[in-house]
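Review this:
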Amino acid sequence: MVKERLNTKEILIVASTLFGLFFGAGNIIFPVSMGQLAGNNVWQAVSGFILTAVGLPLLGVAAMGMSHSQGVQDLSQKVSKSYSYFFTLALYLTIGPFFAIPRTATVSFEVGLAGMVPSESSKLWLWLYTAVFFALAYLLARRPGKILDYIGRYLNPSFLVLLAVIIVVAFWHPLGNPATIVPDPVYQEGAFTQGILEGYNTMDALASLAFGIIIVNAIRSLGVMDPSHIGIETVKSGLFAILAMGIIYACLALLGAQSRGLFPSAENGGIAIAQITSHYFGAVGLLLLAIIMFVACLKTAVGLIVACSETFYDLFGGRLSLSWWTVIVTLVSFLAANVGLTNIIAFSLPVLMLLYPLAIVLIVLALFDRYIIHKSLYKWVTAFTLIPALFDFVKTLPAPFYDWVSGDSWQSLGSRIFPLYDYGFAWLVPSLIGLIVGLLFIQWQKRKIDI
C-alpha cells in the first residue's frame, strides 16, 4: 500500500536503523579526544561536531531518496561519468581499506590490548592482533550467515549499556572540572569550526552516500514511494537518531574534558577511553570494554569488507572475482592497520578535507535535484569546489609529504585567494560562486537557444 508518511512505530524502526548504521565503536574515540583538547570550550566544539557527524549524514540519506539515486556512483554521475568513477573509488577506499576498515582494528587494539602489553613490543602485538582480527573478518566476510545479525541484535545494546555505565560513573565522580581546563591552541579560537572539522573524522557523511540507499529502500518497503516524502520521512526518523547520537557525543566530549583533571591529552581517543575505563573499573572493566569493542569493530569491518568488495567488483566490470576482491580489501586493510591509529587519523585527514567539500555540495544539490533541470549545474559547483579543496588537502598533509609538495607555497597562495582558508573552509565561497556562474551560464544557454 502506497502512503505519504510513516506511523510512529515505523519512524522508530527507521530511526533505529539509522542509529545502528552510523554509530559504531570507532565513533567513540573522536568526541573523547576532542573534549580533551577543547577543555572549557567543549560545548562550542560539540555543537560543530554534531553538525557534521550527525546532521550531514542525515541530509546525505535524505538526498539519496529525493534524487532517485541508487547509490553513490549513480548520484555522482550527475556531475559526469568519469567523475563518478573517481569519486566512488575515492569514497570507498576512504571508508574501506585505506582508513575506516583499518581503524576498526586499531581502535579495538588501543582500547583493549595496547595498555596490557609492554610499550617496546606494542608494534609486534599490533601485527599479531590485526592478523587475528582480519583473519576472522575475512572468514566472516566470505560466509557472514546469521552470526552478524545475532551479534548486532545483542552486542549493540550491551555496548550502549556499558558505555552508559562508564559515563554515569564518570559524571558521578568526575576527574576534573572542564571549566578549569585550558583549551589546546587550536580550540582557543574558533572551537566551533574546529569541531565541524573534527566531525569529518567519523566519515559518516561519506558513508551516508554509500549506504543511504539501505535507508531509502527501508522507507520504500514501508510504503512511501514519492521522493519528496521519502526525504521528509528520513528527516523525521533522523530526529530521533540525532537526539540519541547528539546526547552520546556530548557526554563523551564532556567525559574527555573532565579526564584532563587527572590525565594529559592522549595521543588518540582510543588511549583516552582506555585510561578512563581503567581508572574507574580497573582491569576487569577494561577487559569487558575490550571484548565488546573487539566484536563491535569486527562486525563493522566485515560489513565494510563486503560492501567495498562488491563495489570494486562492479566498478571494474568483474575483471576479478568477488572472492579475489574480498582477499585484496582484507589484505590492504591489514597492512594499513599496522601504521597505527594515530597515523591512520593523520593520513586520513587530508583525504577527508578533499572529499568532504565534494560530498557536501553533492548532498546539497541532490536535496534540490527536482528543481535542477540542467544537470550542468552539478559540474560548475563541483569544479569550483574541487580547486580550493585541493589546497585544504595539501595544507593538512603530514609533515614529510607537506614539505615534499612545497606546502608553504600552497599555504601562502591559498590564504591570499580563498576566504576562510585559515579556518579549513577554503571551498565554501568558491562553491557559491560556482553556483552563481552555473546559473548564469544556464540562462545564457537558454537565451542563445531562444534566439
